[in-house]
Amino acid sequence: MKSVDLYVETVCQQACCGNEAPCGDRFLQQQFPAQGHTVVVLSDGMGHGIKANLLSTLTASIFMGMAGAPQSIETTARTVMQTLPVCSVRKISYSTFTLVDIDHRAGVVHLIEYDNPQAYVFRRGVPFPVTRQAHPYTHPQTGRMQTFYTSSFRMECGDRVVVVTDGVTQSGIGREGFDAFGWGRAAVGDFLAGLLERDAEITPRSMASAVVERAVANDEGIPRDDISCVSIQIRRPWRVMLCSCPPSLSSDVSALAEELRAFEGRKIVCGHRLAEQIATSWGVPLRQQLTSTDPELPPQWEIEGLDLVSEGLLTLSKVLEILERYSEIPTGRGAAYHICELLLGADRIELVIGMRRSNTAEADTEALILRRKILGAIARRLEGGFSKQVEVRYL
Fold this sequence. Notes:
InterPro entries: Bact_Sigma-Reg, PPM-type-like_dom_sf, PPM-type_phosphatase-like_dom. This is Serine/threonine-protein phosphatase. The protein has ten helices and 18 strands. The radius of gyration is 25 Å and the shape is elongated. 34% of the residues lie in helices and 27% in strands. The relative contact order is 0.11. The strands form four sheets. It has a six-stranded antiparallel sheet with strand order 2-3-4-5-9-8, covered by helices on one side. It has a five-stranded antiparallel sheet with strand order 1-11-10-6-7. A five-stranded parallel sheet has the order 16-13-12-17-18, with helices on both faces. It has helices spanning 50-66, 73-83, 166-169, 185-198, 204-218, 250-262, 272-282, 313-325, 335-344, 362-386; strands at residues 7-15, 25-32, 37-45, 95-103, 108-114, 120-123, 126-127, 133-138, 145-154, 160-164, 227-235, 239-244, 266-270, 287-288, 301-302, 308-310, 348-353, 389-394. Strand 12, helix 6 (250-262) and strand 13 (266-270) form a beta-alpha-beta unit. The two termini are 30 Å apart. The protein has two domains: 3-235, Phosphatase 2c, domain 1; 239-394, no CATH class. By secondary structure, it is α+β, with helices and mostly antiparallel strands. The longest helix has 25 residues, at 362-386.
């Protein structure tokens, strides 16, 4: 399968030193569609608290500012290390970092690592060996020799990359059952492998949460350092197609019906008229449910082959209201909450909006226009508030 068909899911879970914010580790992720890259940075500022947070944020932000530039990752790393402030006493940079640069077009993952624990790479559930190249570097201000590492590998569907700060690998220092350096990188790797052995489909969120929870437990519930775990999975994207409003041309109805039938993902139709057209084109019945689980909305319909069929304007208005009210997947009953659950559970969303004008009444036409505006607002909210990849098409 081509790399462009792959999706990168990234989750960072953290615990603050002494359970007191802010966290001295900084995680940033950004997509660069024009270059076809996804860039992930995890930086660990020296110490903890506000100063560490500022230093790690500076490091991660510099990387993101340079990520779109046409230069090698080695040049980027040297520039960042030269820019970072240096401790006047210890003569070392005030923050460490790991950068994961995923080149979707080339299908290659690049890593840059400086003083963070070495990243973990898994393929088909087992550790995948990656050759690292050392890059000695003499800091122009201190004259001190430092070394950063680069590595690359061609990505495959199912690959995982896990990055942690030393708050994870050094958790448990001084406690019985741990060596002088705490939990240790090898033991963390065994823990990750065990998670994948027990559940090959474990989500990045669950994996990162398990690592952080274990590291906090190693420190007896009060982290002695900031703890961060970034879990990345390269997988097939989860897709949703939502269609609403009849197409402008009758011929487009048949084309849309066939596109819906062939679509690989979850399928939603909002609007009774379009639902009737789809059911007729497919030659299947359109059945209305007797009651609604949401007293504010009409009952849903059922069409074999579709995941959800609802009324249009009222339901989509409530979908927008829910999306604007919550920052995570909301819980509730009824069509609007179910649509939100499907949309927020997807990576890539296609909104297909029909442009036919109503021939019945002016109010009906105004309702269709309003529904299209609401769909546009939903698309913007999904992109801006939830970082979803949304494609809007008009028929």
